[in-house]
Amino acid sequence: MASHLYTWGRWAVRRRGGVLAVWLLLLAVVGGLGVTLHGKVATEFSVPGIESQKAQDLLEEKFPTAAGGVARVVFAAPEGGTLTETGAEKAVAASLKKAAAVPGVVNVSDPTEAGTVSEAGRIGYSDVLFRQSADNVPETSKDALSKAMERARDAGLEVEFGGSAMQPKTEVGGPAEIVGVVIAFAVLALALGSLIAAGLPLLTAVVGVAIGVLGVQFVSRFVEMTSTATVLALMIGLAVGIDYALFILSRHREQLADPEADVEDSIARAVATAGGAVVFAGATVIIALAALAVTGIPFLTIMGLAAAATVLLAVLVAVTLVPAVLGFFGERLRPRPRRSERAPGSWALGWARVVTGKPLIVLLVGVVGLLALALPARDLRLGLPGYASQPADSTQHKSYDLLSEGFGPGFNATVTAVVDTSGIPAAERTATVTRLRTSLAQDPGVAAVAPPVSNPGGDLAVVAVVPRTGPDARATTDLVHRLRDNAPAVDKAGGTLYIAGATAAAIDVAGKLSGALPLFIAIIVILALILLTIAFRSLLVPVKAALGFLLSVAASLGATVWVFQEGHLNGVLDIPSAGPVTSFLPVLLIGVLFGLAMDYEVFLVSRMREHHEHTGDAAEAVVQGVARSGRVVSAAALIMVAVFGGFVFNHDPIIKSIGFALAFGVFIDAFVVRMTLVPAAMALIGRRAWGLPRWLDRVTPDVDIEGAKLPERATAAQEEERREEVGAQASR
Questions:
Q1: What digits encode the pLDDT tens for the residues 89-134?
Q2: Closest Cα to residue 169, out of 228, 216, 209?
Q3: Residue 220: in which H helix or E strand, if any?
């Protein structure tokens, strides 16, 4: 592989103008398509086949007015006042009358007639039902609904909005994300010692990310995807794009430290060696993200494929655009002669000698520390963030608090019993649904059960059930399972019972993902063993890498549970309330962190193997591998932590938790596992690390990511002579 990449690198340098033009043209074309022909992203995480989704599909088919998006308008009188006072009552009625005229609205409930005013009379709500599903309610209608409430606001009432139709949009590009990029630039400048060199990885990464994200937006016109898919593509594409360019650029500048090194030859060698590691590491990230498809969950599959496509672009940028840009800058990237006698990477050399000096102690302390961090993960609970997780100053969070205050915490966890009565004789349908309602009301976890509502055809009934506990409580999850135990009685009568609603859907999605997790982990671990066996022609190195990866994932999940589920550091990280961990975060974390962990494993261990190939000294190979790659791996990890960490301060609770889990996981994996435990383990394994059984050695392909088969380095003078000869032959 190294030889092919060497040739490719030379070609990219010599055709740098054309390479740059192609990438800019691609950016313009994809950018134009993404901006002008983008689709509409979804805000709900639906999973075909789960009970709550079956109920939703049934409602859309037989009871479309009950399946439309709902905007719940919450009114609150000032302290000491009530909504039944004449002025407040008239203001609410006038506002709701205007709401009924909003395009798409098919029904507006009256709080007084519907009995949706709290006992104290201070808080009440109206459900505004739209013709369209929640995802398809246009922003113009939501804005018109908000304006319709001006009369109520003018009367001194507080008006807030909740309901399925009022899901907030996910936004990126705020100050926190920009700060992350600025920190990444500072790390690059320190690592490379040059502002020009520091800007190049950012520039090339932005090109790849822009094409990837805009391409995802264009594809959303044809494939349903959530807004999280675009953000994930941006987050991962930016991080790996910077890192991959950094690896090639740092190798190029390391080679240019030799005054006689030729620029073109150095770029080609950097692409062949560091670029080979980039291709291999990038392939692991792509495969890991694409493997999210094994969960069988469409929105997660699309999310993984979107991020994988952006990583693929980052790899292509690294081995084509990066060498072309390096060719444009030529000698300007050659490092200045060092005035200090301190050798580059000397701190990493010292660290390697410390770690390998007492490897067993280092391993024991490191493993015990990571297991301690992982302990909270034993209590991991999965779910989907509700309005309680939205920013405290958002209208969704305020409506949640008002409804909890006025009607109890379980009101925000209302579930819906959907009964398909088409198989029940018409004369027995009412009695069957009445018996079901009585049975549901007898559960100690139920606070109230609304009267049944039937569709016009009379073959579908809907019963709203209000739990006593909130949507994130374990007791509510247990209640949903108990309510489903009523299904056999309905089945016996000839009907079918579904327990649905947002709370039930979150529980169903979490259950589906929990079931897919063991298979996904098994696939990832097996994948790691196969890929690293091919890369390093070793059995012990892949096993060590896989175990280290599992420790990183466990520690990251433990920290995420400690912060988001148990509520620690809420003030520092601006987390409005503790709750279950986002249901698809563990699967996403495993897929992404696996790829990134293998990045550092490949870059670190390939330098060890490169030294071992040339000297045969296994012990010194570990030390020199860390010394030569420690600085760039540390810089790359800090860049990823900065980029992911910037998303921790995003207002969207899903993006916030993903950013935290990835930032923490990358930090732990890079600095504790790869830079500490890996050298210690390699020192203990010794020469045995680089062996393969003879039968396996025969069938394992030799990919040569270390560049052992590259031609000897040519000096600048020799390269100039060669170019003159080629030019002379061409002129003949």
A1: 999 999 999 999 999 999 898 888 888 899 899 999 998 999 888 8
A2: 228
A3: none
**What average pLDDT does this structure show over 373-381?**
93
SS3 127: strand
- Inter-residue contact 7 to 261 (CB < 8 Å): no
- Look-up of token digits 């003949």: 732
How many other C-beta atoms lie within 10 A of the C-beta of residue 344?
17
Task: Find out whether 576 and 391 touch, Cβ atoms under 8 Å.
Answer: yes
Residue labelled with tokens 């987390």: 575
Q: Which residues contact 642 (CB under 8 A, 6 or more apart)?
A: 180, 181, 183, 184, 187
The sheet that has 123-130: what strands, in order across it? 105-108, 123-130, 70-76, 158-162
Tokens of 477: 């999850």
Instruction: State how far the Cα of 114 lies from the Cα of 321, in Å rounded to an integer.
Output: 64
How many CB atoms sit inside 10 A of residue 567's CB?
13
Q: What pTM did the predictor assign?
A: 0.85
Residue with tokens 């196969």: 530
**Phi and psi (nearest 5°) for 418?**
-105, 120
Q: How many residues does the chain have?
A: 732
C-alpha distances out from residue 225 to 207, 286, 298, 612, 711, Å: 23, 19, 9, 47, 48
User: 447 and 412 in contact (C-beta within 8 Å)?
Assistant: no
- Identify the three-state secondary structure at position 178: helix
* Separation CA 135–CA 530 (nearest Å): 42
SS3 content of the chain, % helix, strand, coil (to 5): 70, 10, 20
State both tokens at 147. 């304006």
* Domains, in order of start, for the chain: 1-37+193-337 (1.20.1640.10), 70-162 (3.30.70.600), 396-506 (3.30.70.1130)
